[in-house]
């Protein structure tokens, strides 16, 4: 039996599902799969529950415990993400060797692209903060503090992974009243990741721009980086490659002014005005007197030229 057989849909709904899973020119928001390991409880459960709350509605949850070791054998994890049509995953587990463990990763071509293992050193759930919470499906502002984020390739990939994990729909324009939630990620000198979550309050300031206050609403966590598995530079570049149809090509000799008007510059060759066929208009024809004057002028010019030649010969 061939393992490379083509799976043909039998129903119209099945064909629609397979077409939706194919690569698209403009990809939609990514779903995230949450699943537990052999043992999972305590801070890991609370962290996974809060992450699901922040990620809604792009969430799929598997409630059963799964005997999976992502860094040793990721085949089961890749199968579950493909089956549930998820491009990202969060795997929680706890053991004696690695207590309070969370693995964040993403998928490319049904295989794991990047994967980072984080250990929970301290955690405060959203329920422990007795403050007013934000609504569901609110897009957060992501803030990354500290110069460490750009000092190594692992931290750069982790930053990109966190952006993918908490980013929702792409936003073309925003308004000030629509900014309600901010998530702060700080990388310390000892390479710990500090997660803080705040609600934005707009207060009266007596001016046009309001005064901004931040109220911590949770979750609040301190993570340590344990293990990382990042893709090679070639594979990472291939995963980020954009189709030619979406690339913006620069057009020459076109500029835009401050008012949004488009100005174009056209380069023309040398124009031969004598060969241009113009329309003969009756009103532009010469009168008999003008024609007679032109003939007399030509005769005078010819006489003057002949007289000059005779003078030169003498």
TrEMBL record:
Disordered: region residues: 279-300
A GO cellular-component term linked to this record: nucleolus
Domain Brix: start-end pairs: 30-234
Keyword annotations of the record: Nucleus
GO MF term list: rRNA binding
Principal subcellular localization: nucleus
One Pfam family named in its UniProt record: Brix
Intracellular or extracellular location(s): Nucleus, Nucleolus
Compositional bias of kind Basic and acidic residues: 286-300
GO BP terms in the entry: maturation of LSU-rRNA from tricistronic rRNA transcript (SSU-rRNA, 5.8S rRNA, LSU-rRNA); ribosomal large subunit assembly
Family indicated by similarity: Belongs to the RPF2 family.
Protein name: Ribosome production factor 2 homolog
Species in which this protein is naturally found: Musca domestica
